[in-house]
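Work Package 3 (structural annotation) set out to generate three-dimensional models for the target panel prioritized at the project kickoff. During this period the team completed the workflow that converts sequence records into discrete structure tokens, so that structures can be stored uniformly alongside our sequence database. As a representative example, we reproduce one entry of 194 residues exactly as it appears in the project archive.
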Amino acid sequence: MYEPKLGRFTTRDPLPQAGMVVLGGLSPAAQAALLQQYAYAENNPVNRIDPSGLISCYCGEAAAQAYAVGPIDALTARRLAMEALALAQKEAPGLPGGMAGLHNGAADAFRHCYWSCRMAQEIGAKQAKSVGDVHEACSKGPATEEAMDQANNAYGRSIGVRGNDCRGICLLGVGNGSLQTSVGGKPPRVGGYY
């Protein structure tokens, strides 16, 4: 959390400073690390992100997801993301907005819902949320776009029970208004930032 009046972050980085202690005292790197415990994104927020407060990255999305959920679940999430995109492209002509809806429209809402639903089925809702949060942090879109995507991700996770038809329920969500098909709203709080 950042306190603008103080001009600094007020919560500590939860990562331990492992490997910095040298026998007989602290190394120069450890001394510097102790001073950085209240830093964000290695004091480079223009070029780096730290959505979970646990890893600073140049938004190498795959690496950040692997760090967040482990390499196996990250690979599963990547496979499911490609599956969701292919299905959204197939369904788009029949959805409001057609192919144009693949970005910030009905097909985009369907894709986020389907991806999150399938991830919840295969890697669990908690892991799916972590992957989706990293994806949104790395997207660097406007907050209102993230709000739409996060709402659709949450809906997908909520229906991601084994045996549920993610495709059918997400298509129904587009039709009955359960999914957000236009940009707007405030993104949910993720990790310590909006």
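The first strand starts at residue 2 and ends at 3.
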